[in-house]
Amino acid sequence: MSKRKTKFVCQECGYETPRWMGKCPGCNNWNSLVEEVEMTGKSKHRHTFSTGTTVRKPEKITAIESEKEPRITTKMKEFNRVLGGGVVPGSLVLIGGDPGIGKSTLLLQISSLLADKQLPVLYISGEESTRQTKLRADRLSIKSDLLFVLSETNLFDIVKQIETLKPSLVVVDSIQTIFREEVTSAPGSVSQVRECTGELMRVAKTYNIPIFIVGHVTKEGAIAGPRMLEHMVDTVLYFEGERHHTYRILRSVKNRFGSTNEMGIFEMKEEGLKEVMNPSEIFLEERSEGAAGSTVVASMEGTRPVLVEIQALISPSSFGNPRRMGTGIDHNRIPLLMAVLEKRVGLMLQNQDAYVKVAGGVKLDEPAIDLAVSISIASSFRNQPTRPEDIFIGEVGLTGEVRRVSRIEQRVQEAAKLGFKRVICPRRNLDGWKVPQTIQVIGVDSVQEAMDFGLAR
Ligand code: TYD
Ligand code: MG
User: Fold this and answer.
1) Which of 14, 67, 189, 324 gives 185 a disulfide partner, CB atoms 3.0 to 4.6 angstroms apart?
2) Ligand 1 nearest-atom number relative to CA 103
3) Is residue 59, in this structure, part of any structural domain at all?
4) Average pLDDT, stretch 244-264?
C-alpha cells in the first residue's frame, strides 16, 4: 500500500510546499495555494504506454548527423510561417487565446487540411460533443474522410486511442478539461495540467506525432496553469485579436523549431478563418490621409515587414494630471517620447493629454516605431498633417537622436511595394543596401530633422 501524502500547490506559479501558507513565496500571490494529493509509490511511475528502455550514451557533436527537421506543411501559409515552416513531427504545440477568439475553428480547419493530404488526424474535444464538432465542421464545409473526432476527457483513454489510430496529427481541445485518474485534483488544476501535458509530451516524442493543445487564458492574458506549462512544450502560440474586429493574429512567443515573434494574420468569416496574405494593405485600408496626427511606420513582425498607421491625438488637459494613453503600443514609451519632444524640439506638451493608437488592433513592441510615434504626436499637437506618401522608421534616443534599426532594406521594400514615395529613416542606416527605384530615402540624425522633412509644408 502506498502512503497518501498531500502537498500545497500554488495555482498561479506551481510553487509546492508541505504546509499551507496564505501567501505564496514563489509569486507573492495571496490565497493561491491549494491542497493536492501527491502520487506516491508505484503509481507515480505507472506509464500508460511503454517507453523505450535503451540507455543513451553521450555522443560527439561532430559525429551527430545534422538532418533538416522534416516538416508537414498545410495549405495555410500563414500558419506554416508562424510555426517556422510547417508542423514538426513529434512536437508539442500550445495554443492560447481568449474564449471565442477562434482556437477550435483554426485547429479544426488545420486538421481538415492535413486530412485532405491523406494524413489521418485525431481531433479530441473535451469541451464539445462530437455532434457539436460536426456542426462546426459543416459550417466550415469540412468533408475529410481521414479526420477523426473524439469527445473524451480521460487522458488514459485518449492515449489509448492515439496508440491505436497512430494519426499524423493530434489536437487536444483544451488541456484544462483533460484529467489523469491518478491525480486526485480537479481538471484544470496545476497538477492535472502539468501531469497531462507531461504525458502528452511523452506520447508525442515516443510516436513522433505532433500534438496541438489548446490552453485557456486567464483574465490577465496568460495561459492558465503554471508558467511551467509554457516551459514544457516546444512551441507556444497565441491567437489574439479584438472581439469587435474580424482580424485575428496568430503569434509565436516560443518556438524550439523556428523564430519567435512571427505573426500570421487571419480574418474570421462566416465560413471560417481565411488567411490574409497582404497585411499592410489591410492595416492601411481605413487610413485617413492628410489628417493631422497620423503617420505610417514599417515595423518588423518576426521576419516580415508590415506597414501600420500610428495615430495620435493631443488635446489640452482639463484636469491637473495630463493623461497619456496608448493602445497597441508600450504605454511607457509615450511619456518618454513626449519628454524628448518637449526638451529637444521645444514642443510644450506638459499640459496636454495624449492618446496614441496603433490602428487595426495590432500590437507593436519594437523601438523602430519611436520616430513615427513622435512625428504623430508633433503632427497632432501642431495640427499639421504629414504627407500621405511618407513612411517614418527609427528609434529615438533620449537626446533626441534617431538611432539605427534592423532590417531597413526589407522595410523600405515593403513601403515601395505599397506605393509610398519617401522613407524618413536613421542616417546611420543608409549604407550597404540597395534602394528600390520608386522610393526616395532620406536619412536623418535627430527628431527635429525628421520633423523638418516630415511636417514642413
Ligand atoms: P471558436 O473557435 O469556438 O473559439 P475558441 O475555441 O477560441 O473559444 O470560435 C467561436 C467564434 O467564432 C464564435 O463567436 C463564432 C465565430 N465563428 C465564425 O465567425 N465563423 C465560423 O465559421 C466559425 C466556425 C465560428
Ligand atoms: Mg473552443
Assistant:
1) 189
2) 7
3) no
4) 84
